[in-house]
């Protein structure tokens, strides 16, 4: 018996300070959609993520439905007991969908139809009036709102003004930084994670994270969650999704 069991603690309960791993399964649907059929099914991916020790599922219902589609949402939500984090643009259409499905969390992201992926953070500071009613309606429905922002003081301040309990830092600039800039990017994310916590906001991070670059991010003690997708699905081609999620989980745990 372990000490935690002896104390009557559930051994599967997350330890305080544990960094959660949300797995973005969108690109399973991207592959499915390439042929227009039902295979590979993102629901099966959700089940594998749960088995592999993922803490949550993330999906981005894009305006153009290029990966996850409306009918996938309910099936993914029902497939496992894992919390669902719905990434969504700040539009009336997406708000209605979120209110209908009531995911555990909604992460508001900027969305441009022609972009390949979410290329930058949301301008929460510049879009206060657009975002305020959306954040309020999601929060009133009991959905935990997160804002996908560039790690900058003015965006954290904007999240505070909007009453968002969570921010997710876009780690794209860190992931793509050259040797000369990577340390500064990391410091910026660490400083902004500390600033967020100081102001009562839970910081998450994601975008472009890989086995090679995840550990310095995972070592930032204030971060509560990482959301990782494209790399894990890509690695799954070579080693299987369960193994890719497990390996990421191990790297994150080692870094803490
Ligand atoms: N977090 C958010 C808010 C995202 O929009 C995405 C996808 O761009 C991710 C995390 C995951 O990024 P990636 O697929 O590069 O791991």
Blueprint of the fold:
Layout: H1 3-6, E1 20-24, H2 26-35, H3 42-51, E2 56-60, H4 70-79, E3 84-88, H5 92-101, E4 105-108, H6 128-140, E5 144-149, H7 153-162, E6 166-170, H8 172-175, H9 182-198, E7 202-206, H10 214-218, E8 225-228, H11 230-239, H12 241-255
Parallel strand pairs: 1-2, 1-8, 2-3, 3-4, 4-5, 5-6, 6-7, 7-8
Bound molecules: pyridoxine-5'-phosphate.
Question: Can you tag this structure with a few keywords?
Answer:
TIM Barrel; eight-stranded parallel barrel; 12 helices; 8 strands; disordered N terminus; binds pyridoxine-5'-phosphate
Oligomeric status: single chain
The CATH homologous superfamily name equals Aldolase class I
Distance between the termini: 24 Å
Mean pLDDT: 93
Global structural class: alpha/beta
Beta strand %: 15-25%
User: Number of domains in the coordinates?
Assistant: 1
CATH topology: TIM Barrel
Strand sequence of the main sheet, in spatial order?
Answer: 1-2-3-4-5-6-7-8
* β-strand number: 8
* Largest sheet report: 8 strands, parallel, barrel
**Shape descriptor:** globular
CATH class: Alpha Beta
Rg estimate, integer Å? 18 Å
H/E order of the elements?
A: HEHHEHEHEHEHEHHEHEHH
Hetero ligands: pyridoxine-5'-phosphate
Residue share in helix: 40-55%
Poorly predicted spans: 1-14
- Give the count of helical stretches: 12
Which architecture name does CATH use? Alpha-Beta Barrel
